Amino acid sequence: MGLSIAEKIIRAHLVEGDMTPGSDIALRIDQTLTQDATGTMAYLEFETMGVERVRTERSVAYIDHNTLQCGFENADDHRYIQSVARKYGVWFSRPGNGICHQVHLERFGVPGKTLIGSDSHTPTAGGLGMLAFGAGGMDVAVAMGGGAYHINMPRLYKVNLTSKLRPFVTAKDVSLEILRILSVKGGVGAIIEWGGEGVSTLSVPERATITNMGTELGTTTSIFPADEVTRAFLEAEGRGGDYVPMASDPDAKYDRVIDIDLSALVPLVACPHSPDNVRPASELKGVKVDQVCIGSCTNSSLLDMLKVAALLKGRTVSPSVSLSISPGSKQVLSMLADCGALADILQSGARLLECACGPCIGMGFSPNSAGVSLRTFNRNFEGRSGTADGQVYLVSPETAVAAAIFGEITDPRALGEMPEVHLPPRFKIDDSAVLAPAAPEEAAGVEIVRGPNIREFPSGRPLTDEIRAELTLKVGDNITTDHIMPAGAKILPYRSNIPHLSQFCFGVCDKSFPERAKAAGESIVVGGSNYGQGSSREHAALVPLYLGVRAVIAVSFARIHAANLINAGILPLTFADPAAYDRLNQGDRLALTGILEGLERGCVTLTDETTGERFPLNCAFTPRQAGMLRAGGLLAYTKEMNS
Question: Which residues pair with 14 in a beta bridge?
Fold first, then answer.
């Protein structure tokens, strides 16, 4: 039987296990990336391992999230990351050089290689034919130290694309269409491979938009073939030597096959507050728009920006709309300036922001009270924009421009004829903002710079046979890591200060939670289905750990968050009968018993000591995960294994 692209890369990097779906596998990792919202913690964790130098082929630290410097905190974190990168062999992308996923696509991604990053949208590199995973900072730290990356062998989905996109219909609309089909949890436990004759009509930036948005499906990752389109992109970047063809075998088998006719798609919009709340743009005509944001790691490529410039040329932004533009990299911004497209953007009345994540992570440019904001981003979770009652819609750059011009949601085909836009055969190469690490012989003399905001991260405790604690918080379905540990300009500067950060934990759900959890000493959290979807931020596990959360019981978990809980030493359990969720109440006293034996047999017992009811819980972990929980988390387990 033939192999898919993902199976070929997995087989070439397999360190432990076999490719039986659901079984634990360990992969050798070629590249890692971090960004500054998660990077400080990842490098603190790396330092505890005592490894003198990273052991990957390439590790890159990006500064792209916490770029608003309203106090010393972000600047101190950047200095720490720069110094630790120089000492340990990590390349450092300076603030202003661009968004990690866009820059990595341009300068470092290699078909057929493996990549993990401490950012959930790391699968963007799948647009180049990489096998790229979002992961927690501890997993990235272990990979930098030469350790393997463990996941459950995913199922394999295939999306066959036929025909080609019509004018004003885009890769973003392809992403929204697959979200409409599968939902935000329909890809959990699966890798999506994109294929079919329609693939050849999509550029690498368009493919990267689709693999970026695959994260919102809950997928393990998404991947495209590496073909002549890929070769042309790498040659334009001066990296033709990195090209390796990657294609699935004709007789490869998939667990599910989905067909999408590109010519049948129309401009789509994801309505508040979920990426899968998708409707045609034409059905939303007349919805007044206050703000439009174009950029993010999803839609900030040169191709996207050239289309935006061409559509804005000679037009003026509506007086009722504030329009921001965030180019994805210094390369993109420089080329826009050189060809005159930047002038067309600015003359329309748009506001130029720096080459960073910016509004997508709630770092500035929040909408007005109850304002409608159309964004070319990947997430529209409630409150993520920085405005609690902001109404965020996800759209393509073309639909965003139409809204900015007309002042309301409009099918972009109302703009008339789509201008011809082509990528140049050669991109402008300038890597001066990517700093090389010190040579090994110089590393010992490099001083690590630590500011006063950088605190130690909490450590988990070895697991005991029983946990008796209060149910301090009960939440519903699709709770995101933004709910658990919000982002935004007021909070992000404290990503390296867990004690301060803890006061914001679950603030979107219940502002009283931090104080109640502290008062309880130890506690248990209960959630619905797809608990922990969204960002890979391990702070959504580390902060509850600091607040005394010993276990989370849910109907189901998002993959990365469940892994982060185990890494932190928090026990993630699922209901054997989902109906049991309804019979637990916040404030109940709960008891988990037979835990250590349960790690072996896959089941533990939950007793609600307030009502007297008993419930079986699933406790299915790999031997490695069980060992991590017994030890009190990944770092303790790693030390135990190495002692």
Answer: 27
Helix %, strand %, coil % for the chain, to 5? 35, 20, 45
Q: List pLDDT tens digits, range 66-87.
A: 888 888 999 999 999 999 999 9
Grade residue 477 by pLDDT with cuts at 50, 70 and 90. very high
Cα 593 to chain center, whole Å? Answer: 35
Burial code (b: 16+ CB inside 10 Å, e: under 16) for 416-431 equals eebeebebeeebbeeb
- For the stretch 31-60, pLDDT in tens is 999 999 999 999 999 998 889 999 999 999
pLDDT at 434 over 80: yes
- pLDDT of 643 reads 64
State the sign of the Cα–Cα–Cα–Cα dihedral 210, 13, 139, 83.
Answer: negative
Residue positions counted in the chain: 643
| Paired sense of beta strands 31-35 and 372-375, if any | unpaired
What is residue 544's predicted lDDT score, i.e. its pLDDT?
97
Q: Which long-range contacts (CB under 8 A, 24 or more apart) does 178-183 make?
A: 178/210, 178/213, 178/214, 178/217, 178/258, 178/260, 179/213, 179/216, 179/217, 179/270, 179/275, 179/276, 179/278, 180/268, 180/276, 180/278, 181/258, 182/217, 182/258, 182/276, 183/217, 183/276
| Cβ pair 574, 617 in contact under 8 A | yes
Identify the pLDDT of residue 132. 98
Tokens at 228, concatenated = 């002549």
Q: Which helix (H) or strand (E) holds 406?
A: helix 397-406
Neighbours of 275 (CB within 10 A): 25
Q: Which three-class secondary structure string do you get for 40-63?
A: HHHHHHHHHCCCCCCCCCEEEEEC
Q: Which residue has the tokens 């950029």?
A: 295
As a whole number, mean pLDDT of residues 581-589 equals: 97
Mean pLDDT of all residues in the chain? 95
Contacts of 241 (CB under 8 A, 6+ apart): none
Give the contacts of 111 (CB within 8 A, at least 6 positions apart).
Answer: 128, 129, 130, 226, 230, 242, 243, 244, 245, 246
Kindly indicate the confidence band of residue 292, based on its pLDDT and cuts at 50, 70 and 90.
very high
Other beta carbons less than 10 A from residue 341's beta carbon: 21
Q: Which tokens in the block code for residue 532?
A: 């922990």
What stretches of 311-390 adopt beta strand conformation (E)? 322-325, 351-352, 372-375
Q: What is the mean pLDDT of residues 393-398?
A: 98
> Per residue in 524-536, pLDDT tens?
999 999 999 988 8
What distance in Å separates the CA atoms of residue 196 and residue 233, rounded to the nearest whole number? 20
Show the CA angle centred on residue 127, arms to residues 126 and 133, nearest 5°: 20
343-368 pLDDT per residue, tens: 999 999 999 999 999 999 888 899 99
Question: What b-and-e string marks burial along 226-251, b requiring 16 or more CB atoms within 10 Å of the CB?
Answer: bbebbbbbbbbbebeebbeebebeee
pLDDT, mean of residues 156-185: 97
Helix (H) or strand (E) holding 311: helix 302-312
Burial class (CB in 10 A: 0-12, 13-18, 19+), 295: buried
pLDDT value of position 535: 85
In one letter, which amino acid is 545? Answer: L
Residue 501 burial (10 A CB sphere; 0-12, 13-18, 19+) = buried
